[in-house]
Fold each of these.
Amino acid sequence: KLAYIMPPYWLTAFATTKLKKVIKENSNLVKVFDFKGYKVFDDAQINGGIFIFEKKKKNENSAIEIYEFKY
C-alpha cells in the first residue's frame, strides 16, 4: 500500500491527466479521506486529503472507500 497526502483537486484537474493514467494502469485507489476544506496543516495554503493506493493485480478492479470528515 502507498498513501499520499495531497489536495483533492488532482482527481479532476486536467494537468494531472498523465498521473491519473499511470495510477489507473498500475494501482487501485482504495481509500480517500476527504477533510472537506478543513486545514489539516496550519502552514499549508491548500486543503489536504489522504489517498491510499494498492498495487494493481491483473484485471483487478476494486471499490473505493470514501471517508468525509465534518467539523
Note: Helices lie at 17-26.
Amino acid sequence: AEIDTALADFAEQRIELHAAPAEALCTLCAQHGLSAYDAAYLWVAAELKATLATFDHKLAVAAQRHLGAAP
C-alpha cells in the first residue's frame, strides 16, 4: 500500500528535463572550479532564475558569484 501511494505520488510530479549545453558547463567549471555535476546544478538554477540551496561550500560560493545568492 505504501509503495502504491509513493508511486502514485511520483506519477503526479511535473518533472521537466533541462539539457545544459556542454560549452556552458565547461565555462562554469573553468570559472568556478566546479565539477560538471555541480556546474549543471548551477546552470539550471540560472536558467530557471531559481535559488540554489546546497550544503557544499564551493558550490554555494559559485552560486553567490554567478547568481548573486547568499552562500
Note: The two ends are 41 Å apart (CA to CA).
